[in-house]
Amino acid sequence: MTLTITLLGTGSPMPSPDRAGPATLISAGDEHYLVDAGRGVLMRLAAIGLGAPNLTAVLLTHLHSDHITDLNDVITTRWVMTFGPTPLTIIGPIGTQHVVDHIVASLEPDIGYRIGHHEDLAYGFTEINVIEVEDGPIDLSGQVAISCAPTDHKPVHPTVGFRFDHTDAGGTASAVTAGDTVPCEGLDRLCAGAHALVHTVIRKDIIATVPIQRMLDTVDYHSSPQEAAQTAERAGIDTLVLTHYVPAISTDDDRADWRALAAQHFSGAIEIGDDLHQIVIAPT
Ligand SMILES: [Zn+2]
């Protein structure tokens, strides 16, 4: 069976009218895994006919705000759009339980209002099962095998990337979501032999010219398109999917520039897309 990658949000912390915050959907059949939950994620999911109740699990690469801004929306909307207990599994690095506990605490007034007003919600709030992960396989008992490895986004720590492998009679289709990271051993290991790599990137060559220290600070803990391409090439990846464009890509010339930088170091297919761009990975 094919694995479908949907770029739900290709933006960054800077609000954009065109690009939602970081979020990627990995789908195989009825299983839908949401990787990160940035700004506007449920609007983008709605655009492909899906909602919070359809998510098999939410996986967080790290706890930077732009990757989790709308996790509260996913949690609440899953609850109010279902008609019986619908537990939600959230996977993330050490620290995820703490963040989820505080999000749920912030929702306490809303939870009280809704239970008080809707008799059919008396069964209570969504049960959230947080699984904190560091390295190795993650057992979700689905058709898609999921594993993770540590990445390097220091001083943001810990952070993880995820790999999805779907195997059937036709073979295996596999994709890795790197999240924010510089090239590192854990990501190399996760990517080895995978078909696709979805990698967040920033244009360090452009950001280095911006005389704002807060922007300059971002250069040392992200990958450039060239570095993402080198990681993909080392691992034998077929398709490199770039996302999290900083600065935002707005013209065909921009797109060509980004592609050319990656192509210097990578011989496979390069995907650079807007929100809702989909890539279908065939099994081999
Ligand atoms: Zn980050």
Can you give me a brief rundown of this structure?
By secondary structure, the chain is α/β, with parallel strands linked by helices.
Q: Which keywords apply here?
A:
284 residues; alpha/beta; seven-stranded mixed β-sheet; 28% helix; globular; binds zinc ion
Domain count = 1
Beta content: 25-35%
Q: What compounds are bound to the protein? A: zinc ion
Distance between the termini: 10 Å
CATH-level-2 architecture? 4-Layer Sandwich
CATH class: Alpha Beta
Task: Please work out how many helical segments DSSP would assign.
Answer: 10
Q: Strand order, main sheet: write it out.
A: 6-5-4-3-2-1-14
How would you characterize the overall build of this protein?
The structure is a single chain. By secondary structure, the protein is an alpha/beta fold. It has one domain (3-281): 4-Layer Sandwich (Metallo-beta-lactamase, Chain A). It is 28% helix and 29% strand. The protein has ten helices and 14 strands. The protein has helices at 41-47, 65-68, 71-80, 96-106, 108-117, 185-191, 204-207, 213-216, 225-235, 252-263, and strands at 3-9, 23-28, 31-35, 57-59, 88-92, 128-132, 136-138, 144-150, 160-168, 171-179, 196-202, 239-246, 269-272, 278-281. The strands form two sheets. A seven-stranded mixed sheet has the order 6-5-4-3-2-1-14. β2 and β3 (31-35) form a beta hairpin. α6 (185-191) packs across α9 and α9 (225-235) packs across α10. The longest helix is centred in the C-terminal third of the chain and has 12 residues, at 252-263. The termini are close together. The model has no long low-confidence stretch (mean pLDDT 96). Zinc ion binds at residues 62, 64, 153, 156, 180.
